[in-house]
Amino acid sequence: MRDALLIFRKDVRHLWPRILIVLAIAALEGLLNAAAPAGNPLQLSVVWLWGFSCVYLTASAIQEESLPGDNQYWLTRPFSRRGLLMAKVLLLAVFASAPRMVVQAVALRLNGVSPLRYASVLFATGVFSLAIGLAAAALAAVTENLMQFLWVLLPIAAVEILSLMYGGREIGQNNVAWIRSSALGALIVAASIAILIVQYSRRKTFVSAGILAGTLAMAAMVPLLVTWHAAFALQSKLGRAIGPASMRISFEPSGPAGNYTAEYGRTLEGIDLPIRITGIPAGTRAVSERVATTIEAPGGKTWSSGWTSTGAIANPNPLEDSHAIRADGAYRQHLYVDAEFYRAVKDAPVHLHASVAVTLLGERQSAPISARGRTGHLPGDGICGAGPGPFPSNVVVFCDWPGQAPARVYVQARSLKNGQTLESLLLPAGPYAPYPTDGSMWSGAETMFTAPPEPVEMKLETWRAIGHFERELDIPQIRLSDYAVRRITDPN
Prior knowledge:
By secondary structure, the chain is α+β, with helices and mostly antiparallel strands. It has nine helices and 17 strands.
């Protein structure tokens, strides 16, 4: 331990300018969060800037005593590699992980929120900070200098970005993407620890490079293997159990006619099915997430969509949240079918089966918010700011929550002049993650809408996700052309 403290003090003396940069950016993040977390466009940018500075500091610290090669002065000194590793980890903990936890705790307190209530979120923020440092340390441990570190880092980053972009087409930016992020993070941290142990115990750079290459290949595959449906299935096991008396979907041929138009290019045709939903528990509502459709036609022709966000259960009220199922009643099931397959079977009786992924919302809370300025102490310790938008009569609302944002958030505006009421959904919806996955202490959402005539009173309504499940819609015989959606470009 004495060796570790000696090396730690030496690193602080050598690297103090870089340490100051990391601390200054952490302090800036805390200052922004304390002053105005709601609607702050710099919040995430500062987190990423801190990450870059942390990587630079870590690589510099590790390569103060470079492991690869044969010109290291410290090999002839009475330094144990164990003490050396302890010194580097201590540097990360003291100047990277701990300061972010402290400034975020201070920001919470200045916003009137007890840090103890969010101790687990603060801890997750510290773990995220340490994980970035460990990944950078592992890469620095197999390179001889900062230039070599950079030349290895850039292609690794390019490969992972391309993999995430390709895999992201399937899972997308949605509430279950945290499962893929967590799997990727766990893989990288485990590999980083393995590399550091090998390097600091045996100095086997070839073996460590092999671990790095294997991890890179596995990390590139994670976005492809953790599909949206796999993530949603795991999320459903983590949520509360939903009993057999829950929501049911049934086809209702005699239901009211829809009046929808759509335009998804010439490769897809829209189908609009009248359905009835029953079994929505009192005090809850549901949200249609994605749908998977299979159609079997005479002659063995079959088409499947896979799980897609193109298509969902639609709320018949155009002024409400389009995917929200507020109570039992008549709704529309929107499906989009391959245009070529549709033209081939549209007038034949087909067997249609749709699986619908649904999230059940509950724990509704509401509170008034100011139509101008900042409102704190909202449900879930939220903070909202409202102000004029870019156009006349527009109102912009930004809201932030420490840790986990609600799964669904609405702002309702009512005119005190004529009683007109409008409702707007804040986006993006809060992730279902039990901890922040982007390194930020706060998660938020925003909306812009045309307000009713002033004076206006506004109210915020929040819903939490309490369950995730799938429901089936099976229609043994149907003719698709009877329920085709008119294209926007079609004549009336």
